[in-house]
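Late entry, written up from scratch paper. The run itself happened at the end of the previous shift, but nothing got recorded in the book at the time, so transcribing now.
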Amino acid sequence: MASGGDLGLTILGFLNERPMHGYELKSHLAALTGHLRPVSDGALYPAIARLQAKGLVERHEEAGAAAAPRQVLTITSAGHEELLRRLREPLDLDISDQTRFFALLAFLSALPDPTDQAQVLRRRLAFLEAPAGFFRKDGRPVRARDEPDPYRRGMLLIARASSQAEREWLRHRIEELAPPSGPG
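Output as recorded:
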């Protein structure tokens, strides 16, 4: 989550749930994707400052547990609207990059309209169903069974299993959100 795009989304997403101070927000961010993309103070606090400068986040002081006051961050109504817009209209990279998509997925319930939620999931499903491959030979993706290198074969097998599980979940959730209408 080192990039400004998904970091801003996750900050807004967590603050949409409740106000937090910076350290608490950082621990939530670390729990979400910190094992994949750690968030440093050098990335977090400038991102918060950018959101604050845009009027999406407000900072106010509260008495701390000890003598020192602490800064508490709150999402503004403009920040809430921006969060909903970013959830409803994610960038292509938010759909194609798994870590960014999972950050989006973590807050998708904030979209009040199930049709909007289903549309985002359909975009991810379409991305996953497009032909792709890590390695190519003669312009075609190499299948796992044709890959002689055991580590590359492992990558292909793991990616296929993960993609299959995600596609199944997406189809199921899309159907729950927007069941096909039959003759009535």
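The two ends are 47 Å apart (CA to CA).
(Scratch paper discarded after transcription.)
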